[in-house]
Specification:
Blueprint lengths: L4 E6 L3 H11 L4 E7 L3 H11 L2 E3 L2 H7 L4 E4 L6 H10 L3 E5 L6 H14 L3 E4 L6 H11 L6 E9 L11 H17 L5 E7 L9 E7 L5 E7 L6 E8 L2 E6 L4 E6 L6 E3 L2 E4 L4 E4 L6 H15 L7 H20 L3 E2 L3 H7 L1
Parallel strand pairs: 1-2, 1-4, 2-3, 4-5, 5-6, 7-10
Antiparallel strand pairs: 7-11, 8-9, 8-17, 9-10, 11-12, 12-13, 13-16, 14-15
Helix pairs in contact: 3-4, 4-5, 5-9, 7-9
């Protein structure tokens, strides 16, 4: 039997508590140490898991005997914590977004390359079984040409998030997803943002992405909707996929332009055959941790790595620039600009 991996968890906020639960129930991992400045949250985590508690996550990284680190602290703390783990030669799973700025994200990626340390980024939607199945069918050619991908990620205002706005916090999910579905990076973006409830950052973003193939991406993210909504549509030549992240329901509607439905002699509507795609429901965060365990065991590249996370942050920042300057942002030279930072 292989000994369970000893993991450390930095941060006990909303996502941190989810990581705590998943790590504690994983057959190949044990929560050896946990850190958070909130004494009550830390005391509860230690009592429930037997992990060693630290008020300072940097002290945990420096002192605890660990195989890997999960960073679920506020976004502005990701740089210091990831670099501390990398400096110790520890592979690290960083919650998305990778960092608050492009410069911080590139610093993490560069440090990891120099130390030959793996950085996995917690773009958890990539591990959603409905997403994985849709990706498999796309790669199998169900849509020979992708026309457009649209996503909506909305919900109530999260009072806990103060350091970044909705574009970097939530929008990076969809930036990553739309790029993955199109199988390419955007070359031009534009966005409109609004600040309604948040004290210092935008809480609504509509973003457009133009891909080299001609495909268009559209994302709608906000912290203003009173009910949680998570959906995606991929439209192409043969039809469209529709996906609900929350229920993990996936359907494909085939185009039927050769057989229009006639109403009063006029072809006013075109209906397609709808097929529900079977999906085995699993918790995406558990699948993400399974991947981190694989990375720790094998040293292989993560499915979602630091470079993926860096691109998501860079495009999110480009959205904010586009909104503030009221103009499209050309990203065709982004790879060279990232390399030069």
């Amino acid at each position: 039997m292989t000994a369970p991996l000893r993991l450390g968890l930095a941060g006990l906020g909303s996502m941190g508590r989810n990581h705590l639960r998943v790590i504690s129930n994983h057959p190949e991992a044990t929560l050896a140490a946990v850190a958070d400045p909130d004494a009550l949250a830390l005391e509860a985590a230690v009592a429930g898991t037997g992990a060693k508690g630290y008020a300072d996550p940097l002290a945990m990284i420096a002192e605890a005997d660990l195989d890997g680190i999960v960073v679920a602290a506020p976004t502005t703390a990701h740089l210091a914590l990831a670099l501390a783990a990398i400096d110790r030669g520890l592979n690290v799973l960083v919650e998305k977004p990778l960092a608050a700025t492009v410069e911080d994200g590139l610093t993490i990626v560069t440090a990891a390359r120099k130390r030959n340390v793996r950085v996995q980024v917690g773009h958890v939607e990539r591990y959603n079984p409905a997403v994985l199945e849709m990706g498999r069918l796309l790669r199998a050619g169900w849509l020979s040409t992708i026309y457009a991908v649209t996503s909506r990620r909305a919900g109530p205002f999260p009072a806990r998030i103060r350091d970044v706005g909705v574009t970097v916090d939530l929008g990076t999910h969809d930036i990553d997803m739309l790029s993955w579905i199109a199988d390419e990076r955007p070359v031009r973006v534009y966005a409109e943002t609004a600040q309604r409830l948040h004290a210092s950052h935008e809480d609504l973003t509509f973003g457009l992405m133009h891909f080299p193939s001609g495909a268009i991406g559209f994302l709608d993210v906000d912290w203003l909707t009173p009910a949680k909504r998570r959906s995606l549509v991929a439209l192409g030549e043969e039809g469209m996929f529709e996906l609900d992240y929350l229920t993990q329901r996936l359907t494909f509607t085939r185009s039927n332009v050769d057989r229009p439905q006639l109403i009063g002699g006029y072809a006013t509507t075109f209906t397609g055959d709808v097929a529900e795609i079977p999906v085995d429901n699993i918790e995406p965060l558990r699948a993400e941790l399974d991947e981190f365990v694989r990375v720790l065991r094998t040293g292989e590249r993560p499915y979602v790595d630091g470079e993926d996370g860096l691109w998501a942050v860079a495009i999110a920042i480009a959205f904010l620039t586009a909104a503030s300057e009221r103009r499209p942002i050309d990203l065709s030279d982004l790879p060279s600009r990232l390399a030069a930072i």
